[in-house]
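ok trying again, last paste got cut off:
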Amino acid sequence: IPGSRIPQERILRGVNTLERKYGVIVHTRTKVCCSVPLHEEEGDHFSFDMIGLADLRDRHDAIVICTGSWKSRKLGIEGENLPGVYSSLEFLFPIRAIQYAAPNISVPPVEGKRVAVIGPGHSAIDVAHSARKLGAREVLMLYRRTAEEAPCGKFAVESAQQAGCGWFERLTPIRILGTDKVEAIEMRDSGGEIHNFPADCVVSAVGEIPTPPFAEELGLENVRKGEVRWLNMTALDNVFVAGDVLTGPSKIGQAVYSGLRAARSLDNWLNLKAQQRETEYNSQENTVLTPKPRTD
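nice, full thing came through this time. structure:
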């Protein structure tokens, strides 16, 4: 999320509150190892250390996994691996990281270039605005449906247009053209006609997927279905899960709501376990009910 939407100062204030008021200890640039080795996932180049989930379980009474959705969906089209093609995470993360003086990080070189953004969500909007701020000569947003159907909302689309971004709808990506670099992107409209949009850079912002460590061992599918002994607890005792890593990409409010439910469940589990009263736990009592929509 760009600093224009969540300023760096607000994040730092939140971290300081957690550390000073609640005694939270933060270990940065540390990856919990899973099925994919270090430096093979987006963001791994920021990691200096790695620790195993089993080690964490042995050293702590409980664990909550809130790793979010940190893997970009692929377009699955020809030319996707050409230099100049980015996922939204690959494009946006360096822009944010460079504010923290991260080593070996540079922003995408789009100054004076033509940027094509594929996607209808908030990530696509963030990419478009960021590209304009980085000096892109032209920014085009391409979507297979209409602005009214875009997940980011029509207001966000209009905001991007006011910032100088072009909006083209009812277009589906066919392939990215170029030999040793991006030269254009080929799109098909709803009537079957082919259109080529010249571009020096293509950003795929078609969504992310969760990348939880040991997804099968954690039994996340059962947690999603509610088939668990304890609310938000995985198949591993003392390991809980919350947020987008469980549900997939969502809005911030929904992720916070999931975190609150998991925290309440974890707290009750620890208290009852300390008294050897786990059998008294009732997951229904720890479920925060969502008000039903009004029908009048």
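cool. Residues 287-296 have pLDDT under 50 and may be disordered. The two ends are 37 Å apart (CA to CA).
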